[in-house]
Amino acid sequence: LVHMPSHTFYLVGRYGDALSANQKAAQIDGANAQHQGWTGPDGIWKLTYHAHNVQFGIGGAMMDGDAAGALALAKTVLDRPPVTKPDGGFAQFVLGSAYFAYGRYADRADVMALADPGPKQAFARAMWRYARGEAAARAGDAVAVRAEAAPIAISGADLKPFEDLKPQMGAMVSIARGVLNGRAAMLEGKPQDAAMAYRDAALIQEKMLRRLSDPPAWWYPVRRSYAAALLASGDPVRATAEAQATLKHAPKDPLTLVVLARAAAAQDRKTEADQHMAEAKAGWAGALVAPPAGLL
């Protein structure tokens, strides 16, 4: 009852409320586990829905910029990954959510200290590399981003634990590699190359992951990055169109609104730019420090 409204909140762009609902649901899980006598570090993970509450909470935090909220939930996964067997599919997916949160919000040193999940968890390992690449991108280290992107891959055998979702999980690995290539190109001053990488990743996301809707299997709309790269390449008109297209599927996304604000400013539409930036700040947790174009 506490968790389910988060699905509606997410779909209408109330990402902070989606996070809050799942934080509360996770707290209730703790009390429920105690009530049933499931104590110790594994107890709470015996509740089938707990992993979803945690993963969905991270999804909300990825969209509203609540770094503290995302990292607190991610830490519960990393402290004791909810695995029932080493290659469990959903367990890897939840672990991937935790890696994503760390890549986006944690100090680079903390990200680099995360242990390699190993070859038996190939999907989780791809997301682990993605996290390291995102942290490198935030540090402006294009060489390191490329180094993490290059080995990101997964085989058909590695996807077996995901059963009916094998195509979708394979798509996520392709998106991870594409986004990091886009990040590196932006850092290298090649926004047109970045736009192509982001465009291809966005098309994969929109074709393959629509059925995994909320929170999305990939934790942000990649078309937003495509729009940012178009803007950086000197095309505010196309950037505006792509940002508007992004908002159809990710309503009120604060960072997409940042792209729209910058595109409007580039076209001397100051009032419109101010409106979009005000909307962005209203939907972002804490102060909205203007992110560099390469990380939008």
Q: In a nutshell, what does this entry contain?
A:
The chain contains 14 helices and no strands. It has helices at residues 5-11, 15-35, 50-64, 67-79, 89-105, 108-112, 122-138, 142-149, 166-187, 191-208, 222-232, 236-249, 254-266, 270-282.
Would you give an account of this structure?
- The protein is mainly alpha-helical and 296 residues long.
- The chain is 66% helix and 0% strand.
- Helix 7 (122-138) runs antiparallel to helix 8, helix 10 runs antiparallel to helix 11 and helix 13 (254-266) packs antiparallel against helix 14.
- The longest helix is centred in the middle third of the chain and has 22 residues, at 166-187.
Q: What average pLDDT do the residues reach?
A: 93
| H/E series | HHHHHHHHHHHHHH
Report low-confidence residues grouped into runs of 5 or more.
Answer: none
What distance separates the N and C termini?
34 Å
Radius of gyration: 19 Å
Number of helices: 14
Strand content: under 5%
Number of strands: 0
Structural class: mainly alpha
What shape does the CA trace take? Answer: globular
The largest pleated sheet is described as: none
Proportion of residues in helical segments = 55-70%
